[in-house]
Amino acid sequence: MKLQFKHQKFQADAAKAVVDVFAGQPYLTPTYMMDRGTGHYQLGLNEDDDFTGWSNAKIVPELSDGQILEHIRKIQRDGQIEPSQSLEGKYNLTIEMETGVGKTYTYIKTMYELNKAYGWTKFIVVVPSIAIREGVYKSFQVTQDHFAEEYGKKIRFFIYNSSQLTEIDRFASDSSINVMIINSQAFNARGKDARRIYMKLDEFRSRRPIDIIARTNPVLIIDEPQSVEGKQTKERLKEFHPLLTLRYSATPREYYNLIYRLDAMDAYNKKLVKKIAVKGITESGTTATDGFVYLEGLNLSKSAPTATIQFDCKRASGIKPMSATVTEGYNLFDHSGELPEYRDGFVVKRIDGRDDSIEFINSIKLYAGDVIGKVDENQLRRIQIRETILSHIERERELFNKGIKVLSLFFIDEVDHYRVYDKNGQPQNGIFADMFEQEYADVVGNLQREFGDDEYMQYLASIPVEKTHAGYFSIDKKGRMINSKVGRKKTTSDDIDAYDLIMKNKELLLDRDPKRSPVRFIFSHSALREGWDNPNVFQICTLKSSSSEIRKRQEVGRGMRLCVNQDGERMDAGVLGNDVQNVNVLTVIASESYESFAKGLQSEIAEDIADRPRAVTRDLFLNRVVTDDHGNEMVIDSDTASAIMYEMTVNRYVDRKGVLTDKYYEDKANGELKMAEEVKGFEAAVVDIIDSIYDPKAMKPENARSNNVELQVDEEKLNSKEFKALWSRINAKSVYVVDFDTDELVRKSIAALDSRLRVAKIYFKVESGSMGEIQSKEQLRCGAAFVRESSSTIGIKQAIVASKSVTYDLVGRIVESTGLTRKAVIQILTGIHKATFDQFKYNPEEFIFKASQLINDEKATAIIEHITYSVMDDHYGTDVFTEPTIKGKLGTNVMKAKKHLYDHIVYDSTNERDFATELDTNTDVAVYVKLPDGFYISTPVGHYNPDWAIAFYEGSVKHIYFVAETKGSMSSMQLRLIEESKIHCAREHFKAISSGNVVYDVVDSYKSLMEKVMK
Q: Is the dihedral of CA 828, 832, 838, 842 positive or negative?
């Protein structure tokens, strides 16, 4: 399998943020004569060419520190980041990116963009460990063809090795993009081979490697600087003479001019990583019994609920745990072989789906994941292994028809627990491998066959249990698996061979062919954790001893990447739409309770994003720049900030401490947020500011046991004449064509720029003051000891004009941002008024950004106005209903339904719940369905998935077949531009496919639906 890579906006935005800092730097490719060194060496025919070095051009003097700082502040304001007070070195930039979103891909793309914009070709990637170094090298390998296709050139990359010094000469003398990957120990280490990079070496013609490298003015890229930059390392890095330093980190400790942020909260909310679910195991403190009982979970359907439990059973070979699916009245004493510990009242009295509990007649009550009785370490590990297998089979079954290979990863501390060797050196199972094979055989052997499962059951049957698990460990000279060596004060190993094995088999593990790649369960040493970043890891289970202490963020980080299918295509929102985090779920099988693990994980996330505000206050909004859908900007002043805060308070969106309430989230889900009149038109930008608040509830991992209802299609309704008639009228696919006049777009763009383009002039405020009496330490800390005495502003009367020596490709940049031809862009720029165009020289970057945004607005409008849909021969099948697995929790986001196509309905908001309740009880409704994400309409602005399809009884209403979109607010001003565009496209689609006998409309309640079907 070859992994496919796609262009993602957030990665392009991160690269653009770096490039834009140096806007105005010309494209230059300077050369110099390299130090030839001394000693004997063979001269070539083109000796001068052999010693011609290529360096990164330094920042031109015309691009002053003040201009660069203003660029940084503009980028920060656009990204809702606190503007920097000063330049922190020349030049230090921080890019915050969550683990699993493609950080390495992003900085490789940034290298290409910097080369394209400014001609820079020398880059050094500094990494904290061998594991990350090997992973970065692998990323350069697998993305090489992808980037070559986009940019028309390849990067030459290598790992620094002090015994292969010819690579250093090539790095300096090669004119193409060159990248050296180096781990910090190579220039910070002690010992026999210490710091050869600083020595004059005979084999390097008495030259120091560091001098050859430093002469190229490299761009330093530090991967995870919090793990690299100690005091000594910071000093050593200066010896590389970097042109600039880019720090990429998921958890930065120091923010040097932060220009891009995609932290854990952003990545999770934007669905760029897997959703986290936790299966906790809780040891109950009851002393009422010695009998071991473990409640795996409940099984809910239309019939009476059942529960799956484990308990001890007396067999011929001894007492062993067994699993059973039980109903009310089940007697553990009878089924355990009459073990005395189950004699006293272990008869199932009640199974309750509302709180996932089971109660015995002796009043002992267990919740899903609870275990009581005598539980030793091995029993707990066995439960973890079984729960991992259960989660794996469940996820694998759901994703089988999507062509996605599911992997589970066990981390252990001792290889002997997985593999042991007899006196002849022959490998045998360790205790965990034996447990795995026993539990796997039991789970698969008791698997209930479901409708449409035949192919999956054949797949399971084709893989022997002993072939479906494998160990990835360090290997000794005899080929035996051994524990990885871990240095003092370290938690990861430097075993290159072990990482090579993991990296080499990365693509093979993704192959679902049972003959080529039967391995689905992987055991690895916990010290090799950093080497694992396989995107199809869906379950992680750490079988650690109680003394092992691992950060929970580190534990889940190995499985956060979005998965890929058998074609190597990443299963992201572009492919799956809203279903992305239903497919991409990482389940952690913890050795502690769900509450304990969730609390610990939330605490670590809060610590890692400590600079996010924790409460909504007036100051959160003050002086923030907000933008409306048309690119118009507004600075929130004191009065406006107070007005926003007043509305938040009176609408009960915040509590007394400024913490967001459930009502805020409920109104947001329903589209009913109320905002201050002062920010009308800017509501979306204000919501973005509010959503920057760290809310622990939003980051709480899902309880893997909470979704206790899986929706089942009602076969009777699926085959009913009413549903068949509805489905036959809406299941046709369509294709759209956009045919607009370029001349008309040019005219409208000219009018838009002349009437709405307003570019702020660059100016600087110069203030002077002095320090008065120092009254306290706190006064110094908050800066109150300085008193401002005077201030003046440069740039109001005497405008600062962009330097003539700094060149901008105005036409090219707008072409790149809008996708229009150069001819069309030139027509627009030559057609606008002189006063409009003159704004370019005062602030070129803002002119380009705002002009492009206004042109794109006109382009979007033109596309929507001129779109036409035509019906295709292709149709959706009923597999859009039968294939997906839809789950929820009864009483929380699931309710039973009578007229729905499924036996239950999952709702996203109280609006949807109330709407569905009305549909379910109204006698005019024959059948309805909340349409799954697999049913969508293609539009120029992305896939659109309507909410509901409804069939009424004939004669009861005027329009029998209705497709509805439910919105909390009917005001089109409160619908975002993209949403409006999708709805317009949906109207055109249904007109094209249904000949007018299906009505599509937006409704906000059942009452408004009835008004429309009666018209």
A: negative
